[in-house]
Amino acid sequence: MEAASQVDFSVSKFYAYTGPNYYLDTAALVCNVHCQPSGNTLEYYTPDVVAVFPHLASQAFEGVIDLFAAVVMETLRMDIHLPLTHFSISSDGDDYVLAVQYWDEYIAEDAVRLVSAWFQAMDEANTRGADAFHFPEKFVALQKRFDRTTYGGPTISSLLEAAQKLNIPFHWLRIEGDFQFGYGKKQVRGRSTVFHTDGIKDTEFTTQKDQVKNFLLDCGFPTPQGRNCFTKEDITAEVEELGFPLVVKPLAGHKGEGVTTDIKTLDGALAAYQAIVKSAEEQGATFDGALVEQQVYGLDHRLLAVNGRFAAALLRVPAYIVGDGRSTIEELIAKENTRPERKDNARSPLAKIEADDGLLGYIALQGWTLNSVPKENEHVNLRRVANISAGGVSVNVSDKIHPANIKLVEDIAKFFRVNCMGIDVLAQDIAKPWSEGNFAIIEINAGPGIFMHIAPAEGGSIDVPTMILRSHFPTPGTERIPIIAGNDVITPEFCAELYKRLQALKPDIEFGSVTEEGLLFNGEFFCNNKSHEKNIQLLLRNPKLDFACIRHTKDTIFDYGTFHEGADIVVLENPHYAEVILKRDTLPTGVTIELHDDYIALLSTRTEPRLVMLPPDAQASAPRSATKREQALLQVIEPLLADFLAKNA
């Protein structure tokens, strides 16, 4: 087709809602998109788009803006299938208004701007011969920026995805640096797999590897002998005590960093100790000691407990390559790194293998260099440690673990008030009981990473995120407290009277409300932020809160959205079109109550609509009817309160 002389793509007026809003029932980034009406048609952009996102070829789009929105959503999913699917398109004069579901506001805006620049570049490349726009390269750069955000870690993103699947509301507490799942007294707060419900002393204790080792020995659990050393003299004494072979590792290490295994000489032990001291100095960290332990030979396993119960078992194999008789080790590593499983993004089962000093030193001990050519089918181990971050290969062996080893996991977990615990063991055969053969607990971890259980390189997936969330919220709805939301009918007087009626049902109830007065708890003023959203966040952050009542207006909805996801009872009187979204967001088990001039309508998805006629003195036409109407409304609501309190006890 013949291109127009110029097509103007531009985006502007960005605004981020952190919760449901006028445009979407999720968090939404909203912006204006201008497409010059005389510009190119849909078919003009499709070939370039499909070249990057081939699966879009099977979708039908009505216009350019629909294709644009689809590309934005694909970009927001970061090529790792993030659960971002909601968007809407409306109009604002000559512009379109695009609203897209997002997790990170800044990444979302960058994604929209990137796609806009790409579409603009497609016009310019074809109309004025401009240089091609390298979208894939810029997309990879955007992905790397996302990986560094609060949402980018594989563990937290998998937990958030599970929360969305289970309809568990969550939001980021920016000041605290945690995510909050659920509301009020039902909430849990945390980051990664560490939550506020974990015992802080138990969590701290798991970081003291030497003390944990002694505790496990006291319990009679299989743990290698050893102690923490601070000087060369300590190392020498411990070597004489334990003999060889030995392992030396940093007390505060993680991911296998700084670990030296199979040490068979005093010089080797001292060199490993000195390397740990030097690493601490280079990082500006405190030297906490070097653990010297007996070497136990076996395969590396991560055993996982959730809420005190065995959840998963993973075999971790150190990075390796297999020779073909022609290629060098360097070439074989490069070939291995091209595997899709080693894409090395936030959702990759495997990390890329880096030819760093640790790898070079380890293959040198075996008589290899990067230029060596292994024989065909010759197996070459590249690292001592099997950590996934170091290129190790993960294998799900949850169905192979012996019942005695499962009991061992649960026996250890019962001593710690830690929701999610990783137990690292060496075992020749995880299918045999720990009392038989080589088996040793190397360390335990509070707040372990869990994505390797979801996406192992081999074997089936274990849905650990759902296990974790269900340990906190056993059944649907247990993450919520009852919420009443409405428009101007939710007055301070209404909330005060509602509190009295709730007290009659539960004398010690913790009740919170947000109205034009601000945030109140149990009828007493607490604070009044300029931000309506901040008031609601603080309301639902109260870990003792039993019941909430929230007033929204068209202005607060346009400015802030509603923040909370859904309500059990929605009350509306003469709603503005923006306020009607409260009805949209009524929970499936909830009730919408509409206050009309002379009657009240109760609407529920579970029962037939019910009408309650207002007495003459409570009808809108009656003089000074406000108080009477409020009393009539509360009489309608009162029978619902006990039911909602019972369900959310």
β-strand amount:
15-25%
The biggest sheet amounts to: 9 strands, mixed
Structural class: alpha+beta
Q: How many helix segments? A: 19
* Helical proportion, percent range: 25-40%
From the spread of the alpha carbons, the general shape counts as: globular
Cα-based radius of gyration, to the nearest Å: 30 Å
Structural account:
The protein has 649 residues and is an alpha+beta fold. The chain is built from 19 helices and 28 strands. It has a nine-stranded mixed beta sheet, with helices on both faces. It has a five-stranded antiparallel beta sheet with strand order 17-14-13-18-19. It has a four-stranded antiparallel beta sheet with strand order 1-2-4-3, with helices on one face. A hairpin with a 2-residue loop joins strand 13 and strand 14. Helix 2 crosses helix 3, helix 3 runs antiparallel to helix 4 and helix 8 packs antiparallel against helix 9. The longest helix has 23 residues. The radius of gyration is 30 Å and the shape is globular. The N terminus is likely disordered.
